[in-house]
Fold:
Amino acid sequence: MSTDWKGRCLCGAVQYEARGAAFAQLVCHCRDCQRASGSAGLPVVVVSAAEFSFEGEIRTYTITGGSGMPTTRNSCAHCGSLLFGTPQHAPDIVTIYAGSLDDPSRFRAELVQFTSERHQLDGREPGIAQHAGRAP
Structure:
C-alpha cells in the first residue's frame, strides 16, 4: 500500500498530494477546529511540508490557534471545502483534514487532543440509533 496521501475538494478544483508516511494521525476537538469544520472534531493527518504539494486556487484564513501562534486554514476558493492547515508554530508540517482524502478509510487516529473541549456533537454515544445509510 502506498504511503502517499492524496485528496481533493468537493468540486475537484483543488487536488493535493503528500509523499511519504504521516508523522501523526489525530482528532482535534479544539473550538477552532469545531468551528472551522462545523463538526465535533477534526480528523487530521500530519505530513511533511517539504513533501506536500497542491494544484488549484485556494483561499486562506489565518487565526491564532491552540498553540497561541498563527495557523492558516486553506480551503477551495470555489466550493469552500476545508483542505489543509499550515501552522506557523511548526512550519515543517502540513495538517491535512482527513475528510478531504481520496481514501479516508486510511485514517487511523493515534491520539485525540483538546478533549476538554469535546462535545456530544459526534453522535457516537452508546444508545443512539445508528444507520448505515440515510435515516428513515
